[in-house]
């Protein structure tokens, strides 16, 4: 016997009963409306960098929490900061102390995440 119970608008619980076992499975139902609305929540900051500076610009309205992280290629956290109640964010960070290599930037705005890679080059004298 199969019994289908609505749990929420987006989920169903399907219970299958057998003589020896009871199996419960949760099946996610993705609606077209949710998929379309998810695409409008993408953040895309403007990132510019050179060997000394890293500039971040993000056109947003009323972001409650904005987080910026920089990590090295070994996933060590090098820089992390939080900003509250942000509108049209623009900031330049000093990265002149970083050695040559790849660094990973993560920008989170109210739970929406953007990741990018910056490459620091050092000139040999």
Please name the defining characteristics of this protein.
125 residues; mainly beta; Immunoglobulin-like; 2 domains; four-stranded antiparallel beta sheet; three-stranded antiparallel beta sheet; 1 helix; 6% helix; elongated; disordered N terminus
Count of helical stretches: 1
Pairing-aware structural class of the strands and helices?
mainly beta
Give a quick account of the main beta sheet: strands, pairing sense, barrel closure.
4 strands, antiparallel
Shape: elongated
The CATH class of the largest domain: Mainly Beta
Strand order, main sheet: write it out.
Answer: 7-6-9-10
Number of strands: 10
> Which range best describes the helical content: under 10%, 10-25%, 25-40%, 40-55%, 55-70% or over 70%?
under 10%
Describe what you observe in this structure:
The chain is mostly beta strands and 125 residues long. The chain folds into two domains: 2-37; 43-120, Immunoglobulin-like (Sandwich). The chain contains one helix and ten strands, in the order E-E-E-H-E-E-E-E-E-E-E. It has one helix at 32-38; strands at 2-6, 11-17, 22-28, 46-49, 53-58, 63-71, 77-86, 89-94, 101-109, 112-120. The strands form three sheets. The chain has a four-stranded antiparallel sheet, with no helix packed on it. Strands 1-2-3 form a three-stranded antiparallel sheet, with no helix packed on it. A three-stranded antiparallel sheet has the order 4-5-8, with no helix packed on it. Strand 4 (46-49) and strand 5 (53-58) form a beta hairpin. The longest helix is centred in the N-terminal third of the chain and has 7 residues, at 32-38. Mean pLDDT is 75; it is low at 2-16 and 19-40.
């Amino acid at each position: 016997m199969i019994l289908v119970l609505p749990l929420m608008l987006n989920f169903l619980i399907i219970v299958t009963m057998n003589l020896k076992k009871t199996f419960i499975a949760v099946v996610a139902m993705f609606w077209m409306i949710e998929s379309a609305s998810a695409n409008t929540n993408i953040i895309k900051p403007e990132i510019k960098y050179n060997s000394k500076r890293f500039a971040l610009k993000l056109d947003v309205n009323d972001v409650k929490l904005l987080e910026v992280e920089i990590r090295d290629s070994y996933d060590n956290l090098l820089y992390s900061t939080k900003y509250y109640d942000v509108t049209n964010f623009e900031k330049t960070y000093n990265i002149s102390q970083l050695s040559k290599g790849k660094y990973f930037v993560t920008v989170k705005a109210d739970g929406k995440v953007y990741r990018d890679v910056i490459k620091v080059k050092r000139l040999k004298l």
